[in-house]
Amino acid sequence: QSALTQPASVSGSPGQSVTISCTVTISDLAYNPVSWYQQHPNKAPKLMIFDVINRPSGISSRFSGSKSGNTASLTISGLQPEDEAEYYCSSHTGTGSRVFGGGTKLTVL
Amino acid sequence: QVQLQESGPGQVRPSETLSLTCTVSGGSIHTGSYYWSWIRQPPGKGLEWISYVYYTGITNYNPALRGRVTTSIDTSKNQFYLRLTSVTAADTAVYYCVRDVSLPSYNWFDPWGQGTLVTVSS
After folding, report:
1. Contact A3, A65 (CB under 8 A)
2. Please, how many CA atoms are within 13 Å of residue B104, restricted to the half-sphere of its CB?
């Protein structure tokens, strides 16, 4: 089991909002911020959110991050067909090791 | 803007050593706020962090791979490297080199190289 637990899949219709969760399962990660990555098939992952809530330059405001307790979330509003992709969360442990969640497949219906 | 490019053999025989080079362009690898990471993704599976190296040569490795992996850096060439010994079919993956933005309490990966597929097969 990954130290960061994500749902295997989520789905939504165009225009709707979806939220992908990332739950910390070990205490060593509990206070370390999460980043989020989008990966289209056969492409390299792309940074979408860093330090829980921040968007890099060029990332649509439809993507937002939040955190409550030991769960970080990525919300995508106004779903568009091009949002269909795999999404990963990531953080690091107290020893500096980086970890990823298992990934969530977003399907736009 | 910074770009990263992986290079190395696309096929390695079982029990041999996988060696990859990452060339950084558009910026210096000799920068205090950044580590330089290797991340891999087996076909159809998720992402796995392998290691990072700092410009001083400080390294950190995934505990699951420690003992088989070595990461090094050459600031004069703006390159960093991955060596993975005693490979098996389970090491078949797309290998990415990535800039690891690291501050005391948080980190993120950006940008990523395009990735290179390494197949372990005889």
Report:
1. no
2. 0
The answer to whether the peptide bond before residue A7 is cis (omega within 30 degrees of 0) is no
Q: Look-up: residue for tokens 């939040």?
A: A66
Residue percentage of chain B with pLDDT more than 70: 100
Tracing tokens 């070990």 back to the chain, one arrives at A26
Token pair 């020893």: residue = A95
Q: Which residues of B touch A35 (CB under 8 A)?
A: 106-109
Shortest Cα–Cα distance, A97 to chain B (Å): 6
Structure tokens, B25 = 């362009």
- Kindly report the average pLDDT of chain A as a whole number: 93
> Are the beta carbons of B28 and B44 closer than 8 angstroms?
no
Place of tokens 């937002």: A64
Whether A99 contacts A4, CB under 8 Å: yes
